[in-house]
Amino acid sequence: MSQQTIINAQGLDLTFQTNDGPVHALKDVNLEINKGDFVSFIGPSGCGKTTFLRCMAGLETPTAGTLTVNGMTPEEARKARAYGYVFQAAGLYPWRTIGGNIRLPLEIMGFSKDDQAARVERVLELVDLAGFEKKFPWQLSGGMQQRASIARALAFDADILLMDEPFGALDEIVRDHLNEQLLQLWARTEKTIGFVTHSIPEAVYLSTKIVVMSPRPGRITDVIESPLPKERPLDIRDSAEFIEIAHRVRDGLRAGHDDV
Fold first, then answer.
1. Which among 35, 98, 189, 235 has most CB atoms closer than 10 A?
2. For 114-131, what is each residue's pLDDT tens digit?
3. Rounded Cα–Cα distance for residues 218 and 30 (Å)
4. What does pTM read for this prediction?
């Protein structure tokens, strides 16, 4: 059975014009992401990981090359509600309850009140926050706020989830727990996930495919197809296979620096 390509980048370039002159953010990026993939993007700060994610989301416009999402331009895909986006900070409105924050995109999109209520209930269960609908963001821990942010991105049931370092600001214990929960969520929903991270263990633990990027201008130096099983307990990180993939990611990051 052939795999369905969801996101396809060919010869992608992006140069920002700034007051200090042009900044070449992405250079000749070629990548295919298939339906149901969990793809992590890893590389040094400023390498274009987030920029590439924002291009997929139609939030930045490439200056050369082609990029399609579900066979459409990213702009068309955005209008078709093809993806949910989770930012580095939870970005919850403090004056709205957790339920109110999750309902916000649904209100904007014109879902009925009954449909909104059903969706909020469903996604709160998905992210293990059932019973917290009437709480305010400040009443939740950082990890719970980030789960609420993921619930908001899932509320309108987009097939693609784009996540920009969602756990980067959390401590390691909370991060480990959320990594486990995210894998369970991915298994239950079968979403296609694009995930930006700075953490090698996080990238290896979560992904079916790891995209290693070089310092600016961001190029792809390696694409690693993970041989790890879909079911991944945390202690898989002690296995020889896991350590071998982590070494390959580290070597790719090092090679990217040496080429600059």
1. 98
2. 999 999 999 999 888 999
3. 11
4. 0.90
